[in-house]
Amino acid sequence: MALPIEDYGVIGDLHTMALVGNDGSIDWLCLPRFDSGACFAKLLGTDEHGFWRLAPAGAERCTRRQYRDDSLILETEWETPEGSVRVIDLMPVRDQAADVVRIVEGLTGRVRMHTDLRLRFDYGHIIPWVRRDGHQLSAIAGPDSVWLDTPVEVHGHDLMTSAEFDVVAGDRVPFVLTHHPSHEPEPTRRDPERVLARTEEFWAEWTSHLSYDGGWPEAVRRSLVTLKGLTYAPSGGIVAAATTSLPEDLGGSRNWDYRYCWLRDATFTLQALLGTGFVEEAGAWRDWLLRAVAGDPADLQIMYGIDGRRRLPEYELEWLPGYEDSPPVRIGNGAAGQFQLDVWGEVLDMLHIARESGLSAAPDAWDLQLAMLEFLEGNWQRADKSLWEIRGPDRHFVHSKVMAWAGLDCAVKAVEKFGLEGPVDRWKALRTQIHEEVCREGFDAGRGTFTQYYGSPGLDAALLLIPQVGFLPWTDERVVGTVEAVQRELTEGGYVLRYRTEHGVDGLPGDEGAFLLCSFWLADALAGIGRVDEGREHFERLLSLRNDLGLLAEEVDPVSGRHLGNTPQAFSHVGLVNTARRLSGLEKPAEHAEGRARQVEPEHDAVSRGEEPAGR
């Protein structure tokens, strides 16, 4: 059985990422890319589906572990009765091939080490043909080959490669695992100490660009390193997570493939990167998005492959039992074909933030926005699946309508502030129309809160974003009432749920944990309505959920505190960075939207009184 999700650390090379347990076992690794088939899939199955353990013989979990400075170089240490040892794990930044480097370092005494390597291609389905060539082993099946290079004498048994060896203080024993296309000549052998030094230099240089002087600096730095690790360097796309099918409810079926890039992540991610000095990464993410969405706006998807591909067919791997017997294991994501109205607003919002921040202009960006606005004008009244990608009936979700408003608002600002050309009077009129409808159909006056969708009895954590995009100011009593309602009715153990699954809105069985990004939104919202100390306290509770390496998954079990969902989750780490900035006073809760809220506030007041809004 795999370890608890929070017991895993990660290493990566900006093309893919491996999950390394605190027992020294790599239980998940897709090669050569995030979205490739896994050669180690124990995470979603058993030992038979592939893993690589390297640890003291007979030892269980490590004594301690840490990342080397601000990097993805993982150091895992064991103290045994015979001595102590460290395993250094890394994936050097990619040049020609994908490498996993493991260096065993003797610290004190003499320690007997043991390693088991079981390679299984295609998510544990294919057993490769293994052969020896001097100090190297090669494992080949179909298009894939993996080479193991080590001075340690290894032997094969039970379709697995194993070895035992001693290390004493001062010893450094390397293992290098290299993936290579099987039809090409064997890969160039790596010098493990050299690639370790080069990887350390890469991360030191990258973090030297960090610009952040707010609170909780260690947590912010670790989250930014994690986000960098989730970046697919060739395209600039950032995957939602490194894994697929880790359950949102242990034993349940809410298991999805997150190894793709979601458009709605763009705004939040851009804020985090631009706000901490990583302009190059922000530009690469913006440019990935522009390439991905190029074409007819009617064909816009909510997610794309890491290289911008559109077809992400969803299917199940029946031979994998799932994490802690939580089937099915899904590859691909059927939600890519859903209509989610908010995405048009999210993309328009992100491009507006990029323009306001001074990010270098992208060719044809305004032409794309004009085409998207034309589509939005003709389709904003459609029901949709919402940002939570429900698999139940389409509904008129309040957040979706608010983001349609935000997209139009960005367009108005682009004309007024930057002198771009567009039918601004028409956009203003439609902006007012959407605002009126949301305040009329999506607000429950009896309870004093906005609701999940028109006529719904339920709430939605995304309602916390209403003031962040400037739809209403933080001081509006409807905003305060909504924040208080979410805190009162949509939390478990103090952590925020996306929505109440018992209302049946998503068409899925079972339950799920508390969504960490939404919990960060609550910290923002508490500060936004003036309860700053409470917001900081809530934020620090969330920080305590990070594992010993500073990593967060998608969700948390409010009772047990166990991590749930795919990991490490970009959304969670983006939320951490942005909330830390806001609570540190580096960004106000509605930094890029403040002007919007001020400008339309008289219109809001008129709507709340049932009068004709200004400008109609």
Structural account:
This protein has 616 residues and is of the alpha+beta class. It has 14 helices and 28 strands. The strands form 7 sheets. The protein has a 15-stranded antiparallel sheet that branches. The protein has a 3-stranded antiparallel sheet with strand order 26-27-28. β24 (491-492) and β25 form a beta hairpin. α4 packs across α13, α9 packs across α14 and α11 (516-528) packs antiparallel against α12 (532-543). It is elongated, with a radius of gyration of 25 Å. The model is unreliable at 588-616 (pLDDT under 50).
What are the SSEs and their pairings?
Layout: E1 8-12, E2 17-21, E3 25-30, E4 38-40, E5 51-56, E6 64-67, E7 74-80, E8 83-90, E9 98-118, H1 121-124, E10 129-133, E11 136-141, E12 144-149, E13 155-157, E14 160-168, E15 172-181, H2 192-207, H3 217-229, E16 231-232, E17 237-238, E18 261-262, H4 265-274, H5 279-293, E19 303-304, E20 315-316, E21 330-331, H6 342-357, H7 365-379, H8 398-418, H9 424-441, E22 443-444, E23 449-450, H10 477-489, E24 491-492, E25 495-496, E26 514-515, H11 516-528, H12 532-543, E27 555-556, E28 563-564, H13 570-583, H14 594-608
Antiparallel strand pairs: 1-2, 2-3, 3-4, 3-5, 5-9, 6-7, 7-8, 8-9, 9-14, 9-15, 10-11, 11-12, 12-15, 13-14, 16-17, 18-19, 20-21, 22-23, 24-25, 26-27, 27-28
Helix pairs in contact: 3-13, 4-5, 4-6, 4-13, 5-6, 6-7, 6-8, 7-8, 8-9, 9-14, 11-12, 11-13, 12-13
